[in-house]
């Protein structure tokens, strides 16, 4: 038996965090009654999410997607800009969902999968998996800016964790984060008097964006899947 939120995530409906929100909102039923966070699902149980029965599928699939600016990574079928309108067609009616978010005004690598437990490992704050970005700001980079960014920046009542940053051009830098606060890089820069003009995610854990064309997706190679699962503690 497994927890209800994990069952929903493993079926590829959404992440465990999103599943918990659905349960809290009363949109999940177990055997005809409202589902509870403490429910454990066993063979033969019927789970319905927002009117649709959840069918488990043990096959895990993984895609890289090069998200363009203007695509919202929130899954909302009623929003024409939502990423759900750009998800790949997968055999056997397997549904994938994006792991994490990338701002609507940012672009670059996103991981799409139906592997709910992997999503949990990548997003939970107790795990420190690297994400790398290429960033352009509105003025030349100073040494003080680079030092402050790497040491941690205070804004909105938080102090960001130390990170790695490297200047690559007069107004461009690469930065590697191990946390995923909302609009973190933009807010870090703004607190230091800089404005982000362009932000692209180029790596997540072992996965590189490479030359994947904008608004296209591709399946992960076997070696990429092996490395991803190894680096996130699944092997």
UniProtKB/TrEMBL annotation:
One BP annotation, GO: enzyme-directed rRNA pseudouridine synthesis
Keyword match RNA-binding: yes
UniProt EC number: 5.4.99.-
Organism domain of life: Bacteria
GO function term, MF aspect, one: 23S rRNA pseudouridine(2604) synthase activity
Catalytic activity: uridine(2604) in 23S rRNA = pseudouridine(2604) in 23S rRNA; uridine(35) in tRNA(Tyr) = pseudouridine(35) in tRNA(Tyr)
Domain RNA-binding S4, residue spans: 2-69
Coiled-coil boundaries: none
Keywords: Isomerase, RNA-binding
Any Pfam family: S4
Family annotation (NCBIfam families): pseudouridine synthase
Assigned protein family: Belongs to the pseudouridine synthase RsuA family.
Protein name: Pseudouridine synthase
